[in-house]
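Collaborator request, handled under Task 6.
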Amino acid sequence: MVSDAGLGSCGATLKRHDPDRYLTALFAPAESRDALFALYAFNLEIARVLEAVRDPLAGQTRLQWWRERIDALFEEKGAGPHASEVVAALASVVGRRRLPRGPFESLLDAREFDLLEEPPEDLAALETYAEATAGSLAVLTLEALAPPEEGVANDAGRAAAGAAAREAGGARAADDGAGRPRPAWARRQARGRAAP
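C-alpha cells returned to the collaborator:
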C-alpha cells in the first residue's frame, strides 16, 4: 500500500473521501497515478458543491469559479500563484497529458443539474446526465492513462455511462453507494417525496 506521505494532497483526499476511485488509481501505472488523483479530486470537488451550499445560486458561483480555473488552464495561463492544490495538480496534468477541454466542460455543466430540485424527465435524460458525469470522467481517465486512437475514449466513456445509468436506474444512478453526494432531486426522492 502507498504511504500517505507519498500520496500528495489529491491522493490523500481521495483516500479519505472517495476510497473506490483512490483504490482504482492504485492499479494504474505509477507514472499515471498523480494524473488520476488530480482528475478524481477535481471530480470530487465539483460533486461536493451540492453539500457545501444552501441555495443553487451559491452552487452556481462555486461552479463558475471552477470554470474560470479550467479556462485558465486551457488558455495556458497556468494555475496562478494562489491556486488550490487540486487546481495546481490539474495544471500539471492538463499540460503533460494534453487532455481535452470538452469533458471538463461537460462535467461542470452536469453538476449544475445537481443543484436543481427536478429529477431527469426520463431514462434518456438520465443517460445524458450519466454520460456528462461518469462518461466525461471516464474519457479523461482514459486520456490520462494513454491517449488512445481518436474517438476511442469518447466511445468507451459513453458506453460506461449508459450502462451505469441503465443498471442503476432512477435516482440511484446519482448515488454510487460510496457516500458521494446525490443531486437535490435524488435526495428528495429518497426521502419519499414524489416529484411533481
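The cover message to the collaborator said: "The chain has one domain: 8-175. Residues 8-175 form a domain with the Farnesyl Diphosphate Synthase fold (CATH 1.10.600.10). Please let us know whether this matches your experimental observations."
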